[in-house]
Amino acid sequence: MYINFNAILEEEFDENFLRSPNRDNLNCTPPDIIEFPNFMRKKNVGYVIISILISLYLFLILAIVCDDYLVPAMERLCYGMRMSYDVAGATFLAAATSAPELFVSIVGTCVTKGDIGVGTIVGSSVFNVLGIAAFCGIFVSAATQMDWWPITRDTFWYMVSILLLFGVLYDSKVVVYEAVGLLSFYILYIVALACDRRLQGLVGKQFDEDNIMKENPLEREEDPLKTFKETIMERPDPEAKLIVKIWWAIKYPAVVLLAITTPSARSIFPLSMLLAVIWISIISYFITWLLTIVGYNIGIPDSIMGLTVIAIGTSVPEIISSYIVCTKGYGSMAMCNAIGSNTFDIFICLGLPWTIMILYTGKNILINSQGLSITTGLLIGTGLLVYICFLITKFSLNKFVGWCSFIMYVIFLVVSSYIEVVTLPEVCDIESEDYAFLNYE
User: Fold this and answer.
1) In whole angstroms, how far apart are CA 157 and each of 163, 296, 425?
2) Could you say which of 20, 257, 290, 428 would form a disulfide bridge with 28 (CB–CB 3.0 to 4.6 Å)?
3) C-alpha span between 376 and 307 (Å, rounded)
4) Which helix (H) or strand (E) covers residue 39, if one does?
5) How far is the C-alpha of 319 from the C-alpha of 338, rounded, in Å?
6) pTM value?
């Protein structure tokens, strides 16, 4: 066989030519699992069990690193900048808690080159609004009163982001100006938040000075920031229930590992923030890989895995942070965190990886699932319905809003999963003789 070495030097040679000569002529969609290391790639029940158990523990580590390191570091940053609670929730806290989605999207775009990243962002967007509203509304003992302005402001920008994403996904192709456009609109969003006081004056609302973050995270008595020694030496109460002690024993290795590798937010919080983001990037890669193995073995398309399991798992930081601030009476901050995270997810978590990948490869990004555009359109309905619930309750986050959000979320999962199953092309069976060349080492 003749090989043109000049073409190799000019980077025109197909690196898969000798191994997969027919890869460009497939009549099915290659599964994302082939883009990860060739480990646990064959269908096996044992692989599923191992992947699920490891993924669950990685989700636990993800929750700890966000709750104990990333969010407290962001709180110190926002306190130092004297930001209002709702703006802090919609910007820095939203960006911090959206770090898992960002790195899953980067893996999905740059590594697997499939739909798992887009599916995760779309699924997380729904869960952030409906799931967090349901969780806080149902489990917070007392109803939390919210300010109408920040909820309305962030819902408006969320609707803008959904409409733009729908336009991008409509033709199942992402071009450079669409990706850059998403990034540009996030800049406009930040400018609007910076001018928030003036905008409140335009709508006839007076800015509430009590909304400025005045509580120093280093001095608060409730949920104080712990030192390294306090983190390592913390033990359950001797009279605590057995389940509490078991749970402590399960998560203690993760607590020790993170305490050794990441400084407390009480000390050098910028370094704590940086190392927390690095941990999140590593964990997100392995979670994506392991759940791709689970989806491949069970026969669940990658886009559905992103819409459901990975979306819920990567939204753990939002659940924790929103529930914590909601119990303290900061309902506006909780929902602004949830809605602001969605805006960040669409504008940055999709726009940034898409822009980098298109500029690096010089090629447009193709979306395999046509159903994702329809599912994205459903986001508009879910966002508007939650806002209508807030209007009915006069912006009170209570059990009515919680149960309505829960029912809407279940309906969304059923409808979106059905759409994906109907519209998604057939997935290649890489263990069959016809497509075995895809499963190279």
Assistant:
1) 10, 36, 33
2) 428
3) 11
4) none
5) 8
6) 0.68
